[in-house]
Write a structure and sequence with these properties.
Blueprint lengths: L1 H15 L4 E5 L3 E2 L10 H7 L6 E3 L15 E2 L13 E5 H10 L3 H8 L4 H8 L3 E4 L5 E2 L15 H16 L2
Parallel strand pairs: 3-6
Antiparallel strand pairs: 1-5, 2-7, 3-5, 4-6
C-alpha cells in the first residue's frame, strides 16, 4: 500500500506543478542500459501514440526479442504479471486521469479490486503502452540490493536484465 500511495502522490504533485511529462522511478530502477538507448526519453515521449497516458519502460511481461526499432503496444487487460511500475512515463492527460481517480480513492480501489501499484496505476490510466525497447530494468543484486517486496522473483530480474543487454549488444 505504501508503494502505491507514493506513486499516486508523485503523480498528483506533478499534475499540481503543471508538468507535461514525468518519469516515475522506483528505488530499484536500474539505468544500466541508458548507454544503448535508441532515443532519449524526450524523443520517446514525442514518438508515443497520440493521446497516450503512460508508457511503461520496464515491462517484464514482454518477450526477449527486442530490437533497436522503438514501437509501442497496448498491454492486454487485465494488466499482466510483469507489467511493472519500476519505471514509466506519464503525460499531462495521464496525470489528470490519475489525479481525478484520487478524488475518491476508495471507489477507485473498489472498482479495480486492488491496491497493488502496478494494477492500480495502469488500471486508472486508459491509454497505457509498453515500449518495445526496455529502457529501464529493476536492479536486484543479492549482495548489494535485494528486494524486500518481491523476494520470490528477484533472480528473474537479474536474468531479464542480463538477457536484455545480451540481445541489445548482439551477443
Amino acid at each position: 500500500m505504501g508503494c502505491t500511495l507514493s506513486h499516486l502522490k508523485a503523480l498528483a504533485t506533478a499534475y499540481r506543478q503543471g508538468h507535461e511529462v514525468v518519469l516515475v522511478l522506483e528505488d530499484d530502477a536500474d539505468l544500466t542500459a541508458e548507454a544503448i538507448w535508441p532515443l532519449s526519453l524526450s524523443e520517446l515521449a514525442a514518438k508515443a501514440p497520440a493521446n497516450w497516458h503512460c508508457v511503461n519502460l520496464c515491462d517484464f511481461s514482454t518477450s526477449l526479442s527486442w530490437s533497436q526499432e522503438v514501437s509501442f503496444s497496448a498491454p492486454p487487460r487485465p494488466i499482466p504479471v510483469g507489467f511493472s511500475t519500476v519505471a514509466y512515463l506519464v503525460s499531462r492527460s495521464g496525470l489528470a486521469a490519475a489525479t481525478g481517480a484520487l478524488k475518491d480513492p476508495a471507489a477507485t480501489i473498489g472498482q479495480l479490486k486492488t491496491c497493488a501499484a502496478d494494477k492500480l496505476i495502469f488500471g486508472i490510466l486508459d491509454q497505457v503502452y509498453s515500449c518495445s525497447f526496455p529502457m529501464i530494468s529493476a536492479y536486484n543484486n543479492h549482495e548489494e540490493h535485494d528486494s524486500t517486496i518481491h523476494t520470490d522473483h528477484t533472480d528473474m530480474h537479474c536474468i531479464w536484465v542480463r538477457d536484455m543487454l545480451k540481445a541489445q549488444l548482439g551477443e
